[in-house]
Design a protein that fits this description.
Helix content is 16%, strand content 42%. The chain has four helices and 35 strands. The strands form nine sheets. Strands 20, 22, 23, 26, 27 and 28 form a six-stranded mixed sheet that branches. The chain has a five-stranded antiparallel sheet with strand order 3-6-11-8-9, with no helix packed on it. The model has no long low-confidence stretch (mean pLDDT 90).
């Protein structure tokens, strides 16, 4: 296809025209003579693109038009905002116009364009997206057939993670195809399934962080923006942040109110209203066993109803047959003799955290009997444990973790207890166990301590009780060795604001990771 120009028609009657050859960057394409005058962009091939910086949308455009010509089968021209793969503002299906200089105009509506942005136009054949979607579906069927015939636990685990990757690609293809046309009642569409596929493909915190960073950028720049645009059309604001978490007898549904004049809320399950609640209620306990899709709508003081909130799916009660998923901090493979072992992991689970528990199974190398220690539930889906140095011999230990949601159990690693993680004990390095920091009087909410020589860092610990011990469940953060004060960020481990009385202590840590005893415990009131 050949592209001559793009035009944005605004509310105030002023049009913004961009010559196709006015690009700043490009992939592929060549300029060619044009019967319309001057030159056009031609020789366009699959996946070629054009970039146009500093496009001013102060005219608040309502439509976009392109002048296009094609003597081939044509293709799709997709217009992105600010980056390739960014929000899609327009998509044009270009068909054969019966000549490379047989020019036609195509027009589509656009919404919400304001300010100055960079535009990208990417060209693809008609069948690229459809082929990619069909390929993903075919691959998923192949993976499912392999999972059905293998009994090997590790192979099942690898296949399930591969399936999550392919499922994520399939959802992303569907989102790129349909998301720009989503209306409020279409949400969340493939977003939940796409997000879920990210969580089920990894097990270590570093991969989790990288994936969540990528996912969050897409959600913020596309999904949240779509929600905000559609909310502007609502006379009565629908509730937001609807969350459904399983319980043993059903589910707990929570939400946030967005309507200033709310009078009541109505909770719905699988399309049917199940209860009406007062305006100051934002949580509901449902007794139900089965797959459920929950949503809530608001009623204002004049009796007007909001649209249904974006639904949340849940396997309620006994319908939950999915085991928890463990996301662990990169596991230690060795520790220095005389050092305790600190372990922390997060759980991705359908049920509320109060129904989830974790057990640390360990034995010294060469022993046959497993010992068990329960993990401490730190907050939400986070669990921690500190194994005393006295439990770790020079021969090291092997261990695995089991997590239960009261009905379903998952073990980490997936091969446990046949094949487990091991921790090797190394000889003591250095002889530089540091002194205990001396606490100084606090100033406001900031704690101070005396400088300890030859210290690499200081570790800060916090608890709600004054008789706490330092460990993974009370660790807050560390600060550099040249630091002699610390002020908390104001948030507890669960993300809520610090309120009431908290107790702190600090330890000094040497270059070789020798940690001092805990300092004097101090009290800080918030």
């Amino acid at each position: 296809m050949n592209l001559y120009s793009m035009t944005f028609g605004g509310k105030n009657g002023k049009d913004v025209e961009i010559k196709a050859t006015g690009y700043a960057e490009k992939k592929g394409t060549k300029n060619a003579p044009c019967d319309e005058g001057g030159e056009c962009v031609g020789y366009i091939m699959a996946d070629d693109w054009l970039q146009y910086p500093a496009v001013d949308f102060s005219n608040s455009p309502e439509r976009m038009s392109i002048r296009i010509a094609s003597a081939s089968s044509g293709g799709v021209a997709t217009v992105y905002l600010d980056r390739l793969g960014g929000p899609v503002i327009a998509r044009f299906e270009v068909k054969n116009t019966e000549g490379w200089q047989s020019w036609k105009s195509l027009t589509v509506p656009v919404k919400g364009l304001k300010g100055v942005h960079t535009l990208y136009v990417r060209f693809q054949p008609f069948n690229v997206i459809a082929k990619a979607g069909k390929l993903a579906d075919k691959q998923l069927k192949t993976i499912d057939s392999c999972m059905a015939v293998t009994s090997d636990v590790l192979q099942q685990l690898r296949l399930s993670r591969l399936r999550a990757r392919i499922q994520g690609a399939a959802c992303h293809i569907a989102l790129n195809t349909d998301f720009e046309n989503y209306q409020w009642n279409d949400l969340p569409g493939k977003m939940d399934e796409w997000a879920r596929s990210f969580l089920y493909r990894i097990e270590d915190i570093s991969s989790y962080g990288n994936i969540m960073s990528t996912q969050n950028r897409f959600v913020k720049q596309n999904y949240v923006e779509k929600i905000n645009q559609l909310r502007k059309q609502q006379r009565v604001q629908a509730p937001s942040h609807i969350i459904a978490k399983g319980t043993l007898e059903g589910a707990q549904i929570s939400w946030r109110n967005e309507e200033p004049a709310v009078s009541s809320f109505v909770v719905c399950r699988n399309g049917e209203e199940i209860d009406t609640l007062a305006s100051d209620v934002n949580c509901y306990q449902d007794k139900f066993h089965g797959a459920a899709s929950y949503t809530v709508y608001a009623v204002d003081i004049e009796g007007h109803k909001s649209p249904l909130g974006i639904p949340a799916d849940c396997l309620a009660g006994s319908a939950d047959r999915e085991a928890p998923v463990i996301v662990i901090n990169s596991p230690l493979t060795s520790i220095m003799e005389g050092t305790p072992l600190h372990i922390r992991f997060s759980v991705v689970e359908n049920r509320l955290p109060e129904f989830v528990s974790g057990i640390f199974h360990y034995r010294r190398t060469g022993e046959k009997v497993w010992k068990k220690i329960p993990f401490k539930h730190r907050t939400r889906g986070v669990f921690t444990l500190t194994l005393p140095a006295s439990e770790i011999t020079r021969q090291g230990i092997e261990y695995y973790i089991s997590v239960s949601d009261s009905d379903n159990v998952f073990c980490y690693p997936g091969s446990a207890p046949a094949r487990n993680h091991t921790v090797v004990v190394t000889e003591v390095l250095g002889d530089d166990k540091p002194e205990v920091p001396m606490i100084k009087p606090i100033c406001g909410k900031r704690m101070f301590w005396s400088r300890v020589p030859n210290v690499e860092m200081y570790r800060i610990y916090r608890s709600r009780t004054p008789d706490f011990k330092i460990g993974a469940d009370t660790f807050v953060t560390f600060v550099a060795g040249n630091t002699q004060s610390f002020a908390d960020n104001g948030f507890d481990f669960d993300g809520t604001s610090l309120k009431g009385t908290y107790y702190y202590c600090v330890t000094s840590v040497s270059f070789w990771d020798h940690e001092s005893e805990a300092s004097e415990i101090i009290q800080i009131d918030y």
